[in-house]
């Protein structure tokens, strides 16, 4: 067993978190990850209202007696969702672990901490990590450039970002982005992390709620099959490379670029949702990371976490065997 500050704080067996995933982080997947010994996280904004989130939390509780969390993602949007309502609903339903992500999380963090909750804040720079640390979060989730979704605009890969986190942070942090196996977990631990956060790998599990054809598409895909959209809008997102995302990037690269209003229909969340429901990978935009290249199967969460644990232990003991005692003169 690998015991870390994360497993001790969250009372989980394996130091692996399933990060919030729009349309994917639903009760069946969350309960499966938690039952397998990791931390499953429900994605609040996948639910259409705070009341619907209450129902999803109750459904998850009925399927697992293990700890799980709720993700609240602060989006750059003109009409923000009822964040306070979602947060209150989750706290009232007894959720005690939250993953926050996105801009200006101060008020949310303050609220969760005032309610005695554990907050894992996900961010992509050491500067933001330090500021969240000052706000009193318990754990930082450091998302490197490899990640699915929003890697920020600074393009720092996980290797340097985590080593910088080791230099600068006082509280535990986990490594996110680009991890799909036990070697990744061992590497994260070597870089001072207390565990890992994975998104893309968990999409491609038996309990993930997305269409079988999308899972099969992910197994066939390689590390070349993602693309960054919205670079020109300074809201970069790593998504699966398909007809729609390629068209978005072509529009952004036109002389004079593209306004968001010209891209809105192509990138709509509703179309992305239909990808997962109907199984046509070309129908809309959907997030995926370069770990696509590492994914070769569709295991249950239990199989996946057992395998990651075993591989990490083997990797760590293999490395330990390289260390020979120094000869004494
Ligand atoms: C399909 C999908 C949807 C995601 N949606 C969200 C989200 O709504 N909020 C969030 O904070 N992160 C979101 N993420 C990012 C993940 O929580 C995690 O940080 C990321 O996937 C880590 O990189 P990896 O995919 O290489 O493991 C999403 C990732 C995926 C793959």
From TrEMBL:
It holds the Pfam family NMO. Keywords: Flavoprotein, FMN, Oxidoreductase. SUPFAM superfamilies: Inosine monophosphate dehydrogenase (IMPDH) (SSF51412). The keyword Transit peptide does not apply. Transmembrane segments: none annotated. The keyword Oxidoreductase applies. Signal peptide: none annotated. GO terms for molecular function: nitronate monooxygenase activity. It comes from the Eukaryota. This is Uncharacterized protein.
């Amino acid at each position: 067993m690998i015991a870390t500050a994360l497993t001790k704080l969250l009372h989980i067996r394996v130091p692996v978190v399933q990060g919030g995933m729009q349309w994917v982080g639903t009760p069946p997947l969350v309960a499966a990850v938690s039952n397998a010994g990791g931390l499953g996280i429900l994605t609040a904004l996948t639910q259409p209202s705070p009341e619907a989130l209450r129902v999803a939390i109750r459904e998850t509780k009925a399927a697992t007696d293990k700890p799980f969390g709720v993700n609240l993602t602060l989006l750059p949007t003109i009409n923000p969702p009822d964040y306070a309502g979602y947060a209150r609903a989750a706290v009232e339903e007894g959720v005690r672990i939250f993953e926050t992500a996105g801009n200006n999380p101060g008020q949310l963090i303050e609220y969760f901490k005032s309610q005695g909750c554990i907050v894992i804040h996900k961010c992509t720079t050491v500067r933001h990590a330090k500021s969240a640390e000052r706000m009193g979060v318990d754990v930082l989730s450091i998302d490197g450039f490899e990640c699915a979704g929003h890697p920020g605009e600074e393009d720092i890969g996980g290797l340097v970002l985590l080593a910088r986190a080791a230099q600068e942070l006082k509280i535990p942090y986990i490594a996110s982005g680009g991890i799909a196996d036990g070697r990744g977990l061992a590497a994260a631990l070597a870089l001072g992390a207390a565990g890992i956060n994975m998104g893309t790998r968990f999409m491609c599990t038996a309990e993930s709620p997305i269409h079988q054809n999308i899972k099969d598409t992910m197994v066939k895909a390689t590390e070349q099959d993602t693309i960054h959209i919205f670079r020109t809008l300074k809201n970069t997102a790593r998504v699966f490379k398909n007809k729609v995302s390629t068209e978005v990037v072509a529009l952004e690269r036109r002389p004079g670029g593209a306004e968001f209003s010209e891209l809105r229909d192509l990138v709509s969340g509703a179309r992305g949702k239909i990808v997962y429901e109907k199984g046509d990978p070309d129908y809309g935009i959907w997030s995926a990371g370069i770990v696509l290249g590492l994914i070769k199967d569709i295991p249950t969460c239990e199989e996946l976490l057992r395998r990651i644990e075993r591989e990490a232990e083997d990797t760590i003991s293999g490395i330990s065997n390289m260390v020979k005692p120094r000869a004494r003169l």
